[in-house]
Amino acid sequence: MFLLSLVGAAVAPARPADKTDTLRLESSVVAMGSAYSVVVYGEDRTRMEAAVDAAFAEVHRLDEMLSNYKPESELSEINRKAGESAVDATPELFGLLQSCVEYSRQSEGAFDITVGPLMKVWGFYKGTGRLPHRAEIRGALEHVGYRNIVLDSAQRTVRFAQRGVELDPGGIGKGYAVDRMVEILKQYGTRTALVSASGSSIYGLGTPPGEKGWRVHIRDPKDDSKSVEDVYLRDESMSTSGNYEKFFRAEGRIYSHIMDPRTGWPAQGVLSVSAVAPRTVDSEAWTKPLFVNGRAWAAKHKPAGLRAFFCEDTPEQSCAWLQ
């Protein structure tokens, strides 16, 4: 067991437990291209270890379903075949794709799981990024758009409206995995835990001893040694998307991996967005359209029950909760 140093949001040390029989267990694993960490409090070490092992087994299972890097995954099979004919999908993946289409509809296309061709042309798929020619961007955009996903609920099949469409789970996979891990922990009787995916998608279950919630920091997007806000999570999640996560510099500008799938260009004007919601799949999915569409749009269109913290790219960097 070892402690994982979180990126993007850090967990503050808990105060000493009031009861000497309360145990704290920490562990981490790498899966789905991310580092997943779990902190658990309880009284039965054997049961705690079994719960954590089962949670990690779940994220490895999801890697076999959602990875677009593994050719044998269910999602990769859909990417290969759905442009030619309808492909049968498991109930779990079909339901997740339905949710993705709904996120796209509600965000006016700012969230789009078909962003795969753009991620490739901008060099963010298995790379650190590159500035493509405008013709390359136009070519990729021809295959991007959530309306290209044709879902048949009666037959539970997935089909693409044209060839060249490619699903990219990067905007939702971590959040979904964190929620599933939390459900597994609950099944083992866990009442107090923190689950984190690379520090950018986090769920706090219950409250650690002596605290009012799981304290997490929203990092300063321009200085990873500083934080701009503290959040206490209690049976809720927080996800953060920032231009510092994956980016490159070209022609005097910073280009991040957070794409506006409607224009084909990385979003500008926002440095980071943190969203707090009851489910991690929702907080992660919504950080992208909030980042892309900006504060003014979010004030009118964000879903009820979701809180958002913006750091905007102004001369003095404005960071504040959305009112």
Q: Secondary-structure blueprint of this entry?
A:
Layout: E1 23-31, E2 34-42, H1 45-66, H2 74-81, E3 87-88, H3 91-106, H4 116-121, H5 134-141, E4 149-152, E5 157-160, H6 173-187, E6 192-197, E7 201-205, E8 214-220, E9 223-233, E10 236-242, E11 247-250, E12 253-256, E13 259-260, E14 265-266, E15 270-277, H7 280-301, E16 307-312, E17 318-321
Antiparallel strand pairs: 1-2, 2-6, 3-5, 4-5, 6-7, 7-10, 8-9, 10-15, 11-12, 13-14, 15-16, 16-17
Fold and architecture overview:
This protein is α+β, with helices and mostly antiparallel strands. It has 7 helices and 17 strands. It has a domain of 98 residues: T-fold. The protein has an 8-stranded antiparallel sheet with strand order 1-2-6-7-10-15-16-17, with helices on one face. Strands 3-5-4 form a 3-stranded antiparallel sheet, covered by helices on one side. It has a two-stranded antiparallel ribbon with strand order 8-9.
